Automatic annotation (TrEMBL):
Bias-annotated ranges (Acidic residues): 196-208
Phosphorylated adapter RNA export protein RNA-binding domain: residues covered: 63-105, 128-156
Record-linked Pfam families: PHAX_RNA-bd (PF10258)
PANTHER family, A to Z: CYTOSOLIC RESINIFERATOXIN BINDING PROTEIN RBP-26 (PTHR13135), PHOSPHORYLATED ADAPTER RNA EXPORT PROTEIN (PTHR13135:SF0)
Descriptive protein name: Phosphorylated adapter RNA export protein RNA-binding domain-containing protein
InterPro entries (alphabetical): PHAX, PHAX_RNA-binding_domain
GO biological process: snRNA export from nucleus
Compositional bias ranges of the Basic residues kind: 23-33, 161-172
Region Disordered, residue ranges: 1-61, 158-179, 195-214
Domain of life: Eukaryota
Length: 214
């Protein structure tokens, strides 16, 4: 009897823990977190948007994007129309170039044969495509007034007139040299050439650069 009393009592059974009830929103949070992790793991695509540069750098940047070598001309564009309008015209130019570009106004040039190319598909003569700079300045011409456009191109027009004048002078000198070799030294084209230069300069006043008419 005493032995039975001294025997250790069996341990009481441990009640099994019931699993904790999870909130119904817990699973939704985990799903959202998993989707967020997947999105973050993918490389982000950068938006290919052109950020407007500083005004002092804009002519150089525009020259690079348009492949236009006349940086001084782009300086005058930014000066006369402002950086905001100049950059808007650039963006519109790049959009048109992406969509196929523009054709040169061959008939309006007065010398269409210089601006026609053979189409590879139809084998017919068609106006060639404008350069990026040509598209930009065409948009500029439609955007600003004639006075502003002339102010921008004033220097370019003067350069073209001076180049034509030098070309005519060289041609007269060659003709005078030829006449002298043939024994007609008393004949000269200098006087007539000076008169031609005066008349040509008067006729060219107010002309817009030929390249910008195309």
């Amino acid at each position: 009897m005493d032995a039975d009393k001294n025997a250790a009592a069996p341990p009481a059974p441990v009640a099994a823990r019931s699993p904790c009830k999870q909130s119904p929103h817990h699973g939704q949070k985990q799903q959202r977190k998993a989707k967020s992790d997947q999105r973050n793991s993918k490389p982000k695509r950068r938006r290919q948007s052109l950020k407007q540069p500083l005004t002092k750098d804009m002519p150089r940047v525009m020259s690079e994007l348009l492949k236009e070598p006349k940086v001084a001309l782009l300086h005058r564009v930014v000066k006369h129309v402002g950086p905001k309008v100049a950059w808007q015209l650039l963006r519109e130019t790049l959009r048109l170039e992406k969509d196929g570009g523009q054709q040169v106004n061959a008939q309006g040039s007065g010398k269409p044969e210089l601006f026609l190319v053979v189409d590879e598909l139809s084998h017919e003569f068609k106006p060639r495509r404008r350069t990026s700079g040509g598209v930009f300045f065409t948009l500029l011409k439609d955007k600003v007034s004639k006075e502003v456009y002339r102010s921008i191109y004033e220097v370019e027009d003067k350069k073209k007139k001076d180049a034509k004048k030098r070309a005519r002078s060289r041609q007269r000198q060659r003709m005078d040299s030829t006449l002298a070799k043939l024994g007609f030294g008393d004949l000269t084209l200098s006087a007539a050439g000076a008169q031609e230069d005066t008349e040509a300069a008067a006729a060219e006043d107010g002309e817009v650069a030929e390249a910008m008419q195309l």
